[in-house]
């Protein structure tokens, strides 16, 4: 499967997922992250590599790491590897291959059908960001960014990127942030506070963020006195970042708010989707210093 086209229009609150299996369980990955799916091939083990890295392999002249998805998710190996596949992905400006036990089909679904895992069963260290109920079965959506950060912490967001900007006073500026990953919410909280932004309001999805902003509008106060800017991820249960941006920009009162999209899916090929829904800026994770610089341009 070669993923070469943008399959969905901007702002529809839909996504397409590639369904794959690991240890008998069904999982899904956003089609936009998938470059291609290939047969299992020879890998070279690397001494002292992270336990979740199965090895490296060459693909079209590039040497890419192969992640043992079963191990990364804490699941068992496949006793019959004849159906195993390699999913070649690209996000966060890097290419990574995930070794899975099978690839089945593609589903087009609404983000509104994706539920956030309950804390009662996901645990504090869950690798799952969403659950899709599909034809009487469950499809789990792994937090691929977290899987990679655990293998290579340098690929995440770091405070030292912000410290280079120097001390700044931004405590009177309020920012609303929609981000579903607990890991990323924590990192964004710490780094933005280091940058001087201490008045932060976090939401786990675009739906909750939009309802909060709409409530502010109905309260009768001046919106710009309450919130100065919105930051949103793209992939979120209930309502994605593109649809959130579209709803904000189509709203008579909310349209004045600058909206910045901060996502692992920001590439030159996909930026047109953000522009189409009215995003004021787009930054690829984990470029937190670039995000802070862009914030400064909109709330001086």
From TrEMBL:
Residues 14-153 form the CheW-like domain. Keywords: Phosphoprotein. InterPro entries: Chemotax_regulator_CheV, CheW-like_dom_sf, CheW-lke_dom, CheY-like_superfamily, Sig_transdc_resp-reg_receiver. The modification 4-aspartylphosphate is found at residue 233. Residues 174-300 form the Response regulatory domain. GO terms for biological process: chemotaxis; phosphorelay signal transduction system. Pfam families: CheW, Response_reg. PANTHER family: CHEMOTAXIS PROTEIN CHEV (PTHR47233:SF3). This is Chemotaxis protein CheV. It comes from Metabacillus indicus (Bacillus indicus).
